Amino acid sequence: MWNQEGKVHIRKGFMEWESFNAFLKELSTQINLKDTGVVCHFRITTHGKTAQQNCHPFPISNKIRDLKKLSMTTDVGCAHNGIIPIKTIHNLSDTQTYILKRLYNIQKAHPRFLESKRIMSQIEKEICSKMTFLTSDGKIYNIGEFIEQGGVMFSNRSFEEKLFCDLDWLKYDEFWYGASAKK
């Protein structure tokens, strides 16, 4: 999702890296991504079906059809990382259910809830995880601990290079017990 012309634009459902990357390249020809509020989310299914319409981000809405749209504009969008400890609505994710049952009502009662430390703290206690919001003016609000690297905020460390031990386990006995162990 990104902000442009006073709206948050949501595009989702990229099930392969190539389609997401192609879309991002095309978008970068239309707007300067470095001067724009942008949130990218890569989903691992925890609740609900693995389906395009269950991918993040989402608008804050009380309509299931809005939460499932692959392309839309809204005033505030959000994405979530973690598992929200709630009973989910059939075929919806925990995030979609939380938006429908709770977040929509919070925004309706307190339109400036993102600026309230008390309300944001309450949301953090309820979701027991991380969430990010993008507003139509490009402001990004985060709940939970994020990692900043090179001007980019990450909700976990999966972006870091992983180093694995390169031990050849087939030769382990030979190393530990000596070459005679093979006999």
Poorly predicted segments: none
The helix content, as a percent range, equals: 25-40%
Strand order of the largest sheet: 3-5-6-7
Estimate the global geometry from the Cα principal axes. globular
The percent range for strand residues is 15-25%
Largest sheet: 4 strands, antiparallel
Structural class: alpha+beta
Following the backbone from N to C, one meets helices and strands in this order, namely EEHEHEEHHEEEEH
Number of helices: 5
* Distance linking N and C termini: 62 Å
Rounded mean pLDDT is: 85
How many individual β-strands?
Answer: 9
Gyration radius (Cα, Å) is: 21 Å
Describe the 3D structure.
The protein has five helices and nine strands; from the N terminus they run ββαβαββααββββα. It is of the alpha+beta class. The chain is globular, with a radius of gyration of 21 Å. The protein starts with a strand and ends in a 6-residue tail after the last helix. The relative contact order is 0.14.
Briefly, what is this?
By secondary structure, the chain is an alpha+beta fold. The protein contains five helices and nine strands.
Mind sketching the topology for me?
Blueprint: E1 2-4, E2 7-11, H1 17-28, E3 58-59, H2 64-68, E4 71-74, E5 76-81, H3 94-109, H4 117-127, E6 130-135, E7 140-143, E8 147-149, E9 152-154, H5 172-177
